[in-house]
Amino acid sequence: MIPRKLFRAGILAFGAILFLMIIQGMYAENTGIFQNDQTSLIPSVYSPSDNFSNPELIPLAEHPGTGYPGTPDVIEPDIRSEEQAFDKPYRSDAILVRFTPGSDSLSYRTHSPINSQVIYDYSKDGIAGLELVAPPEKLSIEEAVSYYQSKPGVIYAEPDYYRFSMRIPSDPEFWRQWGMLNTGQTFREGTQPGIPGADLKAVHAWDMATGGDTIVAVLDSGVDYLHPDLQANIWTDPLTGTFGYDAITGDLEAMDLASHGTHCAGIIGAVGDDGLGVAGVTWNTRIMPVRFLNSFGTGTVSDEIEAILWATRNGARIISCSYGGSSYSRAEYEVMKESNALFICAAGNNNLDIDANPYYPAAHDLSNLITVAATDSTDSLADFSNYGLNTVDLAAPGVDIYSTKHNVYKPVPIWTETFDNLYNWTTHGNWTLDSTQFVSPNTSASGHVNQSSSDSYAPVILTLKTPLKISGITEPVFSYQWSMVGMNYSFTIEGSNNAIAWTPLESGKGQIIIAPFMKREFKIPVDLRNSPLFIRFVANGDFCLLGLDDITLSDGYGELAELRWGYMSGSSMACPMVSGTAALLASAAPDASLTNIKTAILKTVDPLPSLSGKTTTGGRVNLTAALTRITGGSSYHLQLSPGWNHVSVPFRLIGGDDTAMDVFGSLTNVSGHSLYRFQSGDWITVRPEEHIAQLTSYWVYTEEVASLPLMVDAEQTKEYKRNLMTGWNGIGVIGEEEIPARQALQSLGDIWSYVIGFNVTTQMSDEPIIRGGEGKHNETRPLLPYLGYWVYLTRNGTLEKNDRPDIPEETKFQPVWPQPLR
After folding, report:
1. Distance in angstroms (rounded) separating the CA atoms of residues 174 and 185
2. What is the pLDDT at residue 43?
3. What is the 3-class SS of 78-106, one letter each residue?
4. Is residue 23 pLDDT above 60, yes or no?
């Protein structure tokens, strides 16, 4: 038998040694939220500007008698559950069952033989026949699912799977927001600069639009709706004046207790151009906070469904989903499919091909869903990001993203427990008072489990003896100081009105953890507020050492103590980049369908080599291009007259809107003629998928006047260059200004001799422009934008956009004129 003091010393020694191993890099780079098999708390070691967001940088027990160093009131959001730490990927007390709609008695007849209870009926929310059911304790979840699946009238039954947040932890101004504007600047201390242009292309878009009243629901850990960089953009219920919904507690407010949702919300819609903090993708929007993930980043599909239905019922058009899990849920699939919202989903952080290893909801094949991978500041696929040629649509910036975080507040205590003793608590298992590690003098409560020891009881449970009267409290919020060292650990906080039936309030699981004291919070569900409240803390694991101190009950969150912004990484950050893009498009084009918004986003990506074969589009989102497309382009149109037209496109077009089909596909009255281009004396048929090139002319027929919109890229800085062959070539000019022929062709030197245009009215060739010619053949005659020309070269050459006026001497000769195709 191991003496208790020896066991305690051993577990602390193990924790300290393991901690030092991690700091030295033996547990390197955790690039996913719940994906590293080694540790849930300790990711790659950064040098944060915010010491409290990286507890691995705080040494253990360096200040004996004063608790851990640092400011204990700073909330540490970086402890999250790991999916792989759960024995089963679903809750153990409920399942989802969908009955054939239209028969209430069928549901009753199926439940009553085994005494199942209906926890929630989603029929009242528009999902006919779907119920969350609590089976009897005598049945396992597998047996309950099997029972219901065998009954007539049951469409399906499935466990209530967990879903998890997907942030990679990291640790405060626009220059830091490389994802919005990347000039190659150093955007974070101690990091390498990015590559210019490897960004969202937001700045040009903001010249066209900055947002509107589109409602974007952030399904997450909540949103700090009091943050001054978000407050003006937070959705407010017009009937109640409240801010969002908490599917965990049933509250009509969804305060974030973990920062994950607040960070995502800031990426989408932090107030722009206000002289404070950061700018969101859309500067003006309506962010609807909807909480279904607890402070450990864990939620259930049933709460997710409740959150989705509440959000859509209250007007959300865009739903941002920075969470996921590896278990397929048909209920989740059907609720999303039947929704009239557009879902933007993070691809996940496992560095896996989710075509082969699905991650949900990202892998659902739905027309109203966009799945987003993450890129870094060099336009590379992030090393943690999931991908999938068939399931992941596109990528967006998702590494070292700077945004809003949950602020620190100072609540006014109504009740406090400082653990000077354990008189108020009933203990189960090994509980002691710790006089070496605490937050407030002189002790903390310490519970420990060691499954290899015969004198260790599992789990350890600390239960409040006398219930708290909370019926008159409007917003009962508990804060507590918490520490944990453990392996294959679990931690739960539960509430009860009778100390018999317990309701989980917070829960988390992981594999290895070393966490010093940090402030955490939890809220009380509405259905537990009308009676006296018992609370208890439960911990278990192969071994674990749990520390508790300074439990406080308050009414609300209190006064603001510290404003917070910070860096985070993950596909969770890439997802709101696209959610914000969708919101800005919806505001700029209020009559556009969500299908058209999705199409505009996917068809206008910037193709990247790093994403080829990794996503369906092979590209990173381009906000400016998508906005240009959804608003009908700019004022640029290619005007055609009846008959043959010799035309050119004088601007680079947006990727995804730059093929022959995109530009000319709307023409129908063409008398069977194809589209052609002229090269080396021959007419070449243009294929529909061929990209429209600049400095190139096209030959097209129409029986009626036509105006073809051109989706012009806002960035026209790339060099224009085209190689030409000896003989006749079809060309065009760049820009909207007339250009003298000798200036337009200056890059060809003395190898051009003649330029001929085409008169659409007479359907005849124009008089030629001759190099060195006089009168009507003078080389100062202009070449016009949008028109096509034939140029004759005496040898191969390169045509470039060039504005230099000096023109070399010419060599005259007479070629055979090109013949227009009829």
Report:
1. 11
2. 24
3. CCCCCHHHCCCCEEEEEEEEEECCCCHHH
4. no
